[in-house]
Specification:
The longest helix is centred in the first third of the chain and has 18 residues. A 7-stranded mixed beta sheet has the order 2-5-8-13-16-18-19. Strands 1-4-7-12-15 form a 5-stranded parallel beta sheet, with no helix packed on it. The protein is α/β, with parallel strands linked by helices. The radius of gyration is 17 Å and the shape is globular. 21% of the residues lie in helices and 28% in strands.
Length: 193
């Protein structure tokens, strides 16, 4: 993949200060065109198969409602059995890794860009990124935001409207702005399917 050899791309995914290169700009244009097309598809198979082709890797049983948005696609890996409701946005300037059996409510956002605090640097349009990692069996409620650098462990539930500013371990329910642990969420015995 040509984008992998682009120095600006490497700076971007490494969390270094970077400026968008012509290769990155072309990838964003391509992704924008394709996303617009697939988000207009009423046919679930056509929409989901099209979106999968734009992502780095996707497991079995991938289903997204329209609109599903992302920046590059090549920085997103998703495990098996993923569901995203309407209006989900993944700003994948940095790496996003989503585990198995994850569900995202409507208007969930994962945001990897870190815009500089110094206005002189911000005016240059340079930015950094920090990766987001979502464990297995994670449910993120509608309107929740996951900020740069966050890792969520396995079996985490994020309450609707929460703003997750730091990482959380396995088996917790987090809520609020900024999100905090509401209670533990120990898994029960396995249910036969």
């Amino acid at each position: 993949m040509e984008i992998d050899k682009d120095p600006a791309y490497q700076q971007m995914i490494n969390g270094e200060l970077y400026m968008e290169s012509p290769i990155l700009q072309e990838r964003r244009r391509l992704v924008r065109r394709e996303i617009m097309k697939y988000n207009q598809c009423a046919d679930n198979d056509e929409r989901n198969n099209g979106m999968k082709q734009l992502l780095r890797s996707v497991g079995d049983r991938f289903f997204v409602e329209s609109t599903f948005e992302f920046s590059y696609g090549v920085n997103i890996t998703i495990g098996n059995h993923f569901y995203a409701n309407h209006g989900v946005t993944l700003c994948d300037e940095g790496l996003i890794k989503i585990g198995n059996d994850c569900k995202f409510g409507p208007k969930v956002g994962l945001y990897t860009p870190q815009h500089p605090l110094d206005p002189a640097i911000r005016r240059t349009e340079a930015e950094r990124t920090a990766p987001i990692t979502i464990g297995n069996d994670v449910w993120i409620g509608g309107g929740a935001s996951i900020l740069p650098g966050v890792t969520l462990g396995n079996n985490v539930i994020v309450g609707a409207g929460s703003v997750v500013t730091h990482s959380f371990p396995d088996n917790v329910i987090v809520v609020g702005n900024p999100a905090r642990v509401l209670k533990t969420n120990e898994p029960s015995a396995t249910v036969d399917k």
